[in-house]
TrEMBL record, chains A, B:
This protein's UniProt keywords: Amino-acid biosynthesis, Cytoplasm, NADP, Oxidoreductase, Proline biosynthesis
GO molecular function: glutamate-5-semialdehyde dehydrogenase activity; NADP binding
Protein name: Gamma-glutamyl phosphate reductase
Organism lineage: Bacteria, Pseudomonadati, Planctomycetota, Planctomycetia, Gemmatales
GO biological process, one term: L-proline biosynthetic process
EC number: 1.2.1.41
Protein family according to the UniProt entry: Belongs to the gamma-glutamyl phosphate reductase family.
Main location: cytoplasm
PANTHER family: DELTA-1-PYRROLINE-5-CARBOXYLATE SYNTHASE, GLUTAMATE SEMIALDEHYDE DEHYDROGENASE
Purpose of the protein: Catalyzes the NADPH-dependent reduction of L-glutamate 5-phosphate into L-glutamate 5-semialdehyde and phosphate. The product spontaneously undergoes cyclization to form 1-pyrroline-5-carboxylate.
Length: 419, 419
């Protein structure tokens, strides 16, 4: 009888073997698989909908809310978008084999720093089954074998998606075990995988903060952490107020439930009189609740009084904390104290002010006269992304194909030795 | 009364504050401090020797061997070399503020990826006191505050070196707490620091494998691991045998006790007859003990029979394991099985063979027709190094100034919002 530990061990060992083969697969083969898989997803949409329907029917028994059931549900548009995602990944440059730096040393040795895959990735995610397709595409293109562990709520959908993608691998000379879906929903399986730092090079948990914290605490290998963002917009004294309004509204209301949405607005005291009421009115027109400091409430008397907890909060909702600050230094200090080092924006036309803000705000992305919503792999030009790292180590901010790789030094000579 | 936990907490908090100030210090200030410190080390050499003499006198009571006491002992040449090291770091490019990539998106947003410090580094090291100087120079130049924890054997030496370097910081507008030396030798202090992942961004343990394993197991923040190397030289059928001999001898005997020295020699069966005895004679002339496979022993009958353990060993000594392999595939398989992914070399003049070796050997540095000894920060052009990473995550191979930094995205627009 196979125990759970044995199952996990053999899954990881198969991934390691597949990773070795996949590491040297040509870009042509990987792209051909991506494009063929995109076509197959559309061709086999009926089978996907049938499996998805089983998950949707069972969803209430898992206590899922209407919003999560909506995210779980696959529609023709969502399957087409997943297929299109694979085609976009095919169109991106291959980070494997990319020569990132290079030169010739005084002794004639040629030194190249060449992109190579990390190896085996353990990817955990929650209910949206299209993530199965996205993650598979990004991992295979970057030359990594992946062990996919989706939520129990989407097991039927994930199983058919995984089967379609995996069956297509050998047709392009790629190893089947490059993509494995954990077939058990036993939570202990996760614990087993997190102990295998000899077989697994990286864990990516994509889901709520409690999932990420649990994985970070248990993992014996590196974790690409993707915590939520407590993002700020600071409207400086030298801001164009039309631009400031546009950026605040977009940062807060374009998609309030995502990590790069703004949560706190800081306003320079010198323009509070001209701007505080104006922006409050504009935010309220978009149904945003305002929680303001005492000074804010002088101009916006019916704002809810803001607490310390509000400044630390990631509302992920139509709520914004507002604070009037005496100067740039106070704005920077507030951000570095309450922020989560994710994305922070300044609106100003003062170059010296923008230089200081950019230098002193310690965040993965610092925006000058642009919406916080631009901290995103597509928007910053990385192509697709597997997450937005809130760590400083390895990769910071959006993680695309290159962030799923490492490098090796390739040193070529004519018999050089050290003297 | 201050407890040990309080002491560690306040040390880390002071480092965090200093890191914020240091992150925006100009290159000019940092370089001025490096050059002034170099001059001061030479000027205050007598005070350094006095302190060092106390450590040397006490050394036998710590059970130190003659070789370790030699490493502990500071001489005028060693102090001069440490000072010269600081001047070399001053001459290297500053990784902070370096624009690593950049472009303009279709919507007009300028996106720059800019080097920034990691923040606070906890650096643990063993007996050589000149490491105090090296680590301080590299950390300050890369904009990181560092908490230095040397061995108890070198506490007097480290204290005076630290005092010289630290006292000079304010003269260049740099924060004193950027360099702190842990003043207690209590081992529990290490445990306290390893728990502080809010204050400390990276731990670098430099010393024996047991130190590194202890730190990796206990640390709650990333660890830059620097394990020893089990490095190989594979002499292919298409090798130039004079070159092969030169590379094998250099890789094995130039400095047998370091991580990039070769431990195993693999020989293609097709040239065993011409090469096995020849290289054995050359190695023995350098006093190297040969441990060979059965096939090797046909040509070198008095070689010690090699065991499985020999192929897995890092001898760090004048011993080499030798194996005759049927072909390139067997050589690659042997390296990927027994090696430590550190440094592996091939000697060949066959381009297709070298391409396969480079692609399939999964090591931080792959050498073609060059000694394994070149896997080193100076030799590969990084300037000084703080270690050679045996991890894949963040940095692989030699870690210089840039590997002590991360990056932020700086995005500048004219009011762009997402539609």
């Amino acid at each position: 009888m196979t125990t759970l530990a044995d199952y996990c061990q053999s899954t990881a060992a198969a991934a390691r073997t597949a990773a070795t083969a996949l590491a040297t697969a040509t870009t042509d083969r990987k792209n051909a698989w991506l494009r063929a898989s995109a076509d197959l997803l559309v061709k086999r949409a009926e089978a996907i909908f049938d499996a998805n329907a089983k998950d949707v029917v069972a969803a209430p028994s898992f206590g899922m809310t209407a919003a999560s059931i909506d995210r779980l549900t696959l529609t023709p548009a969502r399957v087409a978008a997943a297929a299109e995602g694979l085609r976009q990944v095919a169109a991106l440059p291959d980070p494997v084999g990319e020569v990132r730096e290079g030169g010739t040393r005084p002794n004639g040795l040629q030194v190249l720093k060449v992109g190579v895959p990390l190896g085996v990735i353990f990817f955990l995610y929650e209910s949206r089954p299209n993530v199965t397709v996205d993650a598979a595409g990004l991992c295979v293109k970057s030359g990594n074998a992946v062990i996919l562990r989706g939520g129990k709520e989407s097991l039927h959908s994930n199983t058919v998606l995984h089967e379609i993608l995996t069956n297509e691998l050998p047709n392009h000379g790629l190893p089947r075990d490059a993509l494995q879906l954990v077939s058990t929903t036993d939570r202990e399986a996760v614990g087993h995988f997190l102990k295998m730092n000899e077989q697994i090079d990286l864990v990516i948990p994509r889901g709520g903060e409690s999932l990420i914290r649990r994985v970070a605490a248990e993992a014996t290998m590196p974790v690409l952490k993707h915590y939520q963002g407590n993002c700020h917009v600071y409207v400086d004294r030298a801001a164009d107020l039309d631009m400031a309004e546009r950026i605040v509204i977009n940062s807060k209301t374009h998609r309030p439930g995502v990590c790069n949405a703004a949560e706190t607005l800081l306003i320079h005291a010198g323009l509070a009189e001209r701007f505080a009421k104006r922006i409050a009115d504009a935010l309220r027109a978009k149904k945003v609740e305002i929680r303001g400091c005492d000074e804010t409430r002088r101009f916006v008397p019916d704002a809810v009084p803001a607490t310390e907890a509000d400044y630390a909060a990631e509302f992920l909702d139509l709520i914004i904390a507002v604070k009037i600050v005496p100067d740039l230094s106070a704005a920077i200090a507030h951000i570095n104290r309450y922020g989560s080092k994710h994305t922070d924006a300044i609106v100003t036309n003062d170059l010296a002010v923008s230089r200081r803000f950019v230098a002193e705000v310690d965040s993965a992305a610092v925006m000058v006269n642009a919406s916080t919503r631009f901290n995103d792999g597509f928007e910053l030009g990385l192509g697709a992304e597997i997450g937005i790292s809130t760590d400083k180590f390895h990769a910071r901010g959006p993680c695309g194909l290159r962030e799923l790789t490492t490098y090796k030094y390739v040193v070529t000579g004519d018999g050089q030795i050290r003297g």
